Amino acid sequence: MKINQFGIIETTFEQKITELTAIGFYDATIKLAAQQGPMALFAALMKQAAITTAVKTNFSDYMVNENQDLADFLTTRTALTMQEFDSVALQLLQFTENVDYTLAEPVKGIKALGLPLADIPGTWSTNDLLSAWYDLMTTHTKNGLQFIDLLASHGYFKTTNESLFFNGKAMVTFDTKTLKKEVVYVETDLDTDNDGMKDLVRVDIIRPTTNQLVPVLFTASPYYQGTNDAISDKNMHQVNVPLERKRPNHVTYDEISYQAAPTKELASHKKTGETAVASKTFYPTSHVDLNNYFLSRGFAVVYSSGVGTRDSDGMQDTGSPEQVASMQAVIEWLAGNRRAFTDKTSGVMIKATWSNGKVAMTGKSYLGTLATAVATTGVAGLETVISEAAISDWYQYYRDNGLTIAPGGFPGEDMDVLAELVYSRMQDAGDWHRTKTQWQQKQAKTVQEMDRAGGNYNSYWDARNYLKNVANIKADVIMVQGLNDWNVKPRQVFRLYQKLQELNVVKKLYLHQGQHIYINNNRSLDFSDQMNLWLSYKLYDVNNQATTQLPDITWQNNQQPDTWQIKASWGQTTPTAISLANVQTPVSYTDQQTRQAYATYSQDYQTWRSLMMNREKHDLDHARIMFLQPKQTQDLLIDGEVSLQLRMKSSSNIGLVSAMLVDYGLEQRLTTKPVPQGKQIDRGKNWQPTSLVEFGLAKSTPFKMITIGHMNMQNRENPWRVNDLRPREYVDLTLTLQPTLYQLTAGHQLGVVIYGTDFEMTVRGNQNITYTIDTKHSQLLVPIVTVADAKINGKK
After folding, report:
1. Are 371 and 235 in a shared domain?
2. Mean pLDDT of all residues in 381-398
3. Residues linked to residue 681 through DSSP beta bridges, in sequence order
4. Domain termination site, one of 567, 594, 621
5. Which residues contact 761 (CB under 8 A, 6 or more apart)?
6. Is 286 a catalytic residue?
7. Residue 284 clears pLDDT 80, i.e. is over it
8. 632 within a domain of the structure (yes/no)
């Protein structure tokens, strides 16, 4: 086990005393004890911590070495060293003797666990002890909390409903039992239902009861007002359909670039009065865990599903400029720049008089996507976004290089299916029957514009490409992405990250080894602490050096558990060209399967994928070409985008090419789903606990997919230009795979598997097509360096 903490700021001894005073660990009683020496001070600090149930009042329950307990030590000894303090600190931090450390060598255990406790040799003075006690407060326990937060969850702080900061982070001083829950309706500048009136969107607010102004965490979630799972599932598209030939064209980007329609004059809702008190409340539903963490720390939390959702006006349209604008309007109201009403009919206006005007957007997947999208509007009041597994270009989510591509695990899903899922207005029978015809017309238009059969990039997709508007971003950006997330694939964050390098905004990136997950409850990384440091700085103006303290890139190493490392860049490594001519040329493979195999793999694409990577002979050999490199003599780091430059031909006038980069070597690899640790993390004081999780080591496997890519051979130039493809005629193309950051172990082999149909992600035409590759004129481009040369650092 190892704890990686990046959210601790260095402080002077004078600052430590000031902060210890503020949290009650340097009051009159402790000052008096300090005058009597380190042993009396140690006893006083322990007694103060023991006012909570997190610390035992019987000091004989703690050992300072193998032969002496703390109670005896405090009464018989006159000198304190790091050895004794660390022994007790490890027990306070919930680590287990002879499992996590030994009493014979506690300092060695501290270093192995990566704990940031004080390293002070010799006999300690009272000042040494006070400094070390401060460091103990900021150190993580075995079970996922800073020690000060563990004390807080057991009632250490009084609920003053006033902000208190320690080591630059907001403390648990707000009463979650008295949170206010309010509903307002923000007036947008949209009319997506064409009734001539400005659409209103429902906004749910959860905020502390306090006299101080508070900042806001806003999560834009189309799922929040409910989802239509059964109806959406029925509308999944058939993927067992043939790949269709597309008519060649000479379309340029200028011809398909999105141009916003002229704005229309819309009627505003009539104001009949104004109030400071909301008239509606709501019953709490499942909320974002990171948001729950901040409610006990003096932040308000706001949720909205936007236009076309339950209790809001308008029509749902996945990722559209209108959907983004409706979420932008919520920010504007929170910042004091837009109108809202207490309900949809009375005309009584309400202002966010409790807001300090500073807003952060949070959330994963669709939620993080809208955070990114709203940031590209440059809206005033949005100080930062924390976008996790966020889409930056919807085309790259449901399409890829002219192909219709499914998000991993969801064959048949598309923009219209997702819109159907979140059009929660149909959950109210009356509202549904009033809007049913209009909704069906809207969906028919979406199906036409998204062009599932063609798969080309067009103005519909261009309107949903937020990368075009990155230059408008004024907010600082935190990005989180799983390198094994094949739902929202790594290219989404990679392209955004690259674009942000051109802007004078702070950008921080977290790359983990998980799938489509949150990482705020991870045991080995202090992500919630870091976000506390960040949001205390951005929204409360705490001078805590957050911009320099948080690493630019935090990467979870894929070789070892509990290992998070620092990088300065991603994707800057110059590619190395690897020839594919080490096998006969040309080489061919055939896409078609037997009827039985086709039926089997259509139902079980995970088995299909595993077989496609397996080096052993099997009945899928005819459907792939595998290129293997020699065993590596040292650890290598693949840093960025891997590309295949291929000269190939199809036996037909249609064709698709897919490829997987694979790590071959028997190895225990990290799980891509975190494993519950059997503990709960308290998000305040008896408030919204969540499971503590960690990536573990799975059973040994002989291979692992590193990354993947797909292309329609007719879109080999770009996704909007359709090239001709003549049977049995070679063409040159470059297939760029999803970006990665992956450490390849010495003794392993790097391989690339090239094939056609991807049973999980592409259409499954099962057409009798043979593909041929001219290996003499083909190569693999890998951005690879030795680990020794890579600029990777450990914990700060």
Report:
1. yes
2. 98
3. 690
4. 567
5. 405, 406, 408, 411, 486, 658, 708, 710
6. no
7. no
8. yes
Judge if the upstream peptide bond of residue 242 is cis by omega within 30 degrees of 0.
Answer: no
Relative orientation angle of helices 82-92 and 106-113, to the nearest 10 degrees? 50
- Please pick, among 393, 416, 485, 562, the residue that the annotation labels catalytic: 485
Token representation of residue 640: 């960025």
The mean pLDDT of 488-501, rounded to a whole number, is 98
CA 164, 165, 166, 171: dihedral to nearest 10 degrees?
A: 60
Mean pLDDT computed over every residue of the chain: 96
Q: Are 464 and 372 in contact (CB under 8 A)?
A: no
Tally the C-alpha atoms within 13 A of residue 719's C-alpha that lie toward its C-beta.
Answer: 24
- What is the SS3 assignment for 91? helix
pLDDT attached to residue 796? 45
**DSSP label at residue 350:** E
**Nearest in space to 86 (alpha carbons), one of 58, 114, 60, 64:** 64
CA separation for the pair 182, 277 (Å, rounded): 9
559, 592: one domain? no
Tokens 């990686």 label which residue? 4
C-alpha dist (Å) from residue 503 to 163, 476, 480, 541, 571:
33, 10, 19, 22, 17
Q: 708 and 607 in one domain?
A: yes
Pair 648, 699 in one domain: yes
Q: Note the pTM of the prediction, 2 decimals.
A: 0.97
What tokens were used for 168?
């630059």
Among the listed residues 145, 283, 306, the one whose alpha carbon sits nearest the alpha carbon of residue 206 = 283
129 and 182 within one domain: no
The answer to whether 618 is a known catalytic residue is: no
State the Cα–Cα distance between residues 368 and 79, nearest whole angstrom: 53
Question: Which SS3 state, helix, strand or coil, does residue 724 take?
Answer: coil
Looking at the structure of the chain, the number of domains it has is 3
Do 558 and 605 lie in a common domain? no
Q: Looking at the structure, do residues 559 and 463 belong to the same domain, yes or no?
A: yes
Burial class (CB in 10 A: 0-12, 13-18, 19+), 320: buried
CATH number at residue 699: 2.60.120.260
Question: How buried is residue 52: exposed, middle or buried, by Cβ count under 10 Å (0-12/13-18/19+)?
Answer: middle
* Phi, psi (deg, nearest 5) at residue 718: -165, 170
Report whether pLDDT(329) > 60. yes
763, amino acid identity? V
In the set 305, 312, 355, 365, the catalytic residue is: 365
Is residue 516 among the annotated active site residues? yes
pLDDT at 94 exceeding the cut of 60: yes
The predicted pLDDT at position 794 comes to: 61
What is the rounded distance in angstroms from the CA atom of residue 606 to the CA atom of residue 594?
Answer: 18
Using CA of residue 655, residue 719, residue 253, residue 573, what is the dihedral sign? negative
Phi-psi region of 346 (alpha: psi -120 to 50; beta: other; left: phi over 0): alpha
- Mapping DSSP onto H, E and C, the string for 270-288 reads CCCEEECCCCECCCCCCCC
Q: Does residue 167 belong to any structural domain of this protein? A: no
Active-site hit among 140, 516, 710, 748 = 516
Domain holding 635, by residue range, is 576-790
Identify the domain boundary among 548, 567, 586: 567
Q: Under the phi-then-psi rule, with left for phi > 0, alpha for psi from -120 to 50, and beta for the rest, what region is 247? A: beta
For residue 236, count CB atoms less than 10 angstroms from its CB and return exposed for 0-12, middle for 13-18, buried for 19 or more.
middle
Q: CA distances (Å), 595 to each of 601, 765, 767, in order? A: 10, 12, 11
Structure tokens at 633: 């003599």
CATH at residue 490: 3.40.50.1820
| Residues 30-54, mean pLDDT to the nearest whole number | 97
Strands (E), 314-422: 340-341, 348-350, 355-364, 382-388, 399-400, 403-404
Secondary structure percentages of the chain, helix, strand, coil, to 5: 30, 25, 45
| Per-residue pLDDT at 510 | 98
Q: What SS3 state is found at 19?
A: helix
Whether 8 is in a domain gets the answer: no
